[in-house]
Amino acid sequence: EFQFGTNWSKYSKFVGDIFGAPLAIETISAFFLESVFLGLVLFGWDRLSRNAHCFATFMVAVGSTLSAFWIIVANSWMQTPAAYILRNGRAELTSFWGAVFNASTMPRFLHTVDGAIMTGAFFMLGISAWFLFKKQHVSSARVTFLLALVVAQIASVVQLGLGHYHAVQVVNTQPAKLAAIEGLFTTQAHAPLLLFGIPDAERGTVDYAVRIPGGLSMLAYGKPAATVTGLDAFPRAQWPPIPLTFYPFHLMVVIGFMLIGFPALGLLLLWMKKLYTNRLYLVLAMLAVPLPFLANELGWMTAEVGRQPWIVYQVLATSDAVSVTVPRSNVIFSMVTLGLVYAMLFAIWILVLRREIRRGPEAPTVMSTAEVVR
Description:
Elements: H1 2-6, H2 9-43, H3 50-79, E1 84-87, E2 90-93, H4 96-100, H5 105-134, H6 138-173, H7 175-182, E3 188-189, E4 193-200, E5 205-212, H8 215-221, E6 227-228, H9 242-271, H10 279-287, H11 290-305, E7 310-312, E8 316-317, H12 328-359, H13 369-373
Antiparallel strand pairs: 1-2, 3-6, 4-5, 7-8
Helix pairs in contact: 2-3, 3-5, 5-6, 5-10, 5-11, 6-9, 7-9, 9-11
């Protein structure tokens, strides 16, 4: 919110009638819901019953999910603007719900939330693997390890379908982004699906390309002979930055398939009764913790860089949205300052997390799920 009023004043003036509503709703509803119940979670360990504490934890998750929805509503409107008219040099809202449920809101929201569930599951898997590897809190760790493994498997497989759902939306609403993602420089029928390659935007070619003939047409339109729009259909000035769109997307896909295969291997080891004792798998589970975080960031990079040069797709250019009276030095200063604040918060988070891991979970008072399975 601070940067909207300083670095992006022309953008704020242009879309303030639309962009402000979801951010205000997010603050009034989701943010306060998270904050209130987070206080109960943190300070209610010895004051609330187990059921009340569990409910408070659940409400924090609900608040976070609502927060994600309204933030994504705001961002999705920038990707696929809807329900507005241009009047007096500003975008004015014509239908609140039409703007909320624009073409990309639900695909992006579901894709993002499932990515968050995957991130939580792999995080929980890695912490549990640490306890099992160190032979500490084994009874509790077996329960959390198994739960995280099952959730990670379900969420990662579901993400495959949600990713396709989101990609089809991009096909229909942001064809230039799709073309940059796939390195498709020429509009063509039987468009191939690019598995590997090095795009060269200057020559309009992809070196060392490994393709599936007709694969992109099939995924995009359900017909291998369908025509897919390439970058040649757009002025060169409206091409997204190819490397920063192409490489993050393909790396995200590679990580995504890794995140599908890893819990599947764990379930196989569970069936073989070797899950909790396979030390190599436990080490890999710990090393896998950053992968969903990285995949999420790569996905957002693809989404945001892929819509350039537009800040509001095909309505307002990014170059026309910046503040003209704020010098570059001030922008750099604010970015560096915010970066340092977040770096400090990240360091504190690591220290607190380390302390909590060393402390470990409470001793279970009932028979664990893992003991029942065993």
